[in-house]
Amino acid sequence: HIQAVIFDLDGVITDTAEYHYLAWKKLADELNIPFNRNFNEALKGVSRMDSLKKIISRAQPAPSFSEDELNRLADRKNEYYKEYIQQITPDDLLPGITDLMKEIKQKGIKIGLASASKNAMVVLEKLGITSFFDGIVDAATIEHGKPDPEIFLAAARQLHAESASCVGIEDAEAGIQAIKAAGMFAVGIGTADKMKEAGLRVEGTQKLSFIKIESAYLLKNK
Ligand code: BG6
Ligand code: MG
């Protein structure tokens, strides 16, 4: 049976994926680097610095920045992002998420967070859901970002759960890869083309339910 459900944050619990996009878009525009929603898909789940490097490498010709300059650019994006997340309230929980978490709790199953974001705690506080979590991985302690399984394995360890008995929920391709590399069951939220690798895919969070997740998980483990 399922021992733990490990959630991604941005784009799964709340739509901060949109704020990350808007903040990067603002920075890219200032740098005159082409940037759009389609390319932004490749940044989902990717750390702040790695995202910045991916954006810069798209410029023609790609400018070269010193480490100091890179840090300042990453900080600038984060300032834009922090402004956006100020406005978050519990109303910004994506549909179905609170009910799903309550259901998981009622079953005595653990809830974990595996977010690459260093702003995760602030966002959880603003949403008012910090107390739902039995374990929250600090992104600053993770050496290898998604698609590496490290962050999901760290979450399972915190929850004293075995990988094979964990379910991960993600909206990013890199995140689904990370869940699967950790030996967990992957639930993907998004379009079929992006979520090909997921064990269960739903179009949006309103379509999530524990019974759906459990049935798919049990079928997979038969
Ligand atoms: C992930 C987001 O959750 O966190 C990425 O999907 C983001 O878009 C990453 O770059 C790092 O977030 P932060 O808040 O530490 O810049
Ligand atoms: Mg995400």
TrEMBL record:
Q: In which residues is Mg(2+) bound?
A: D8, D10, E170, D171
GO terms in the biological process aspect are:
carbohydrate metabolic process
Q: Which reaction does it catalyse?
A: beta-D-glucose 1-phosphate = beta-D-glucose 6-phosphate
Annotated catalytic residues: D8, D10
Swiss-Prot/TrEMBL cofactor(s): Mg(2+)
Q: Which EC main class describes this enzyme?
A: isomerase
Annotated residues that bind substrate are located at 8-10, 24, 43-48, 51, 77, 115-119, 146
* InterPro entries named in the record: B-phosphoglucomutase_hydrolase, Beta-PGM, Beta-PGM-like, HAD-like_sf, HAD-SF_hydro_IA, HAD_sf, PGP-like_dom2
Reading the lineage from the top rank, the first entry is Bacteria
In Swiss-Prot or TrEMBL terms, this protein is called Beta-phosphoglucomutase
